[in-house]
Amino acid sequence: MHKTRLRLAAAALPALLLAAACSSSTDSTKDADGPPTVLAGKAPLTTEQLSKALVTDSDVPGWTVQPSQTADSSDTSRLTADKPVCQPLADITSSNPTIHRMAFIGAAFAKTTATSGATPEVINQMLVASHAPGDAKKVIASVKTALAGCTGFTATDSTGTKTPFTISKGPAVPTGDESVAYVMNDAADKKTGAALVAVVQTGDTVTAYLSVKSSGGAGPLPIEVARKQSDKLKAALAARK
Fold first, then answer.
1. Which residue in 43, 124, 174, 212 has the fewest CB atoms around it within 10 Å?
2. Strand partners, 64
3. Of 1-10, 31-40, 66-75, where does mean pLDDT reach its minimum?
4. Nearest alpha carbon to residue 8 among 77, 50, 66
């Protein structure tokens, strides 16, 4: 499967769900003079460090990984849930979440197809983010709390467009320090408007995965990739000065 085909296929994923994953990489780990901001003795991973820790085709044989190519650093779009209890779920797919990301990168990935140029059956997006010490745990905790009380909400994006979602339980995610998964269903597009969302906290990082079938509907959990990504992030975190 050509990476161009994967990139085009990923562009067909539900636009609202990809607000964060398709936006640019950003880096808040540097101050005006350039050096990393050291918090609690450890600097959050920078965009460069996250990029080096991103899984590649060679890390996960049988998969094709395409890093995001966008470079618009002005993207500050935010999804707002009409129910405050649901806001952490909207934040996972928002470019400007309540709990600030210090740096983040995105990528599309899919199982490598046997036929060159064929569209994969399942298309995935990932958003890998670094956080200030303690914030990654706050993110995963807020998502779990939201899932306990949120069964649906209407999200409003920065243009004023409203999209209604229902929320249902996802599969177990056996990787990372803490993890959780759920399904976001676009109530206005019940046939194809669903995506599996998995959130994995590894140290001071949070990786969000969105999986959609090309034919419509939520895709399966890409656990092989998620495990390898968590392992690479652990190594990157351990190597911090």
1. 174
2. 110
3. 31-40
4. 66
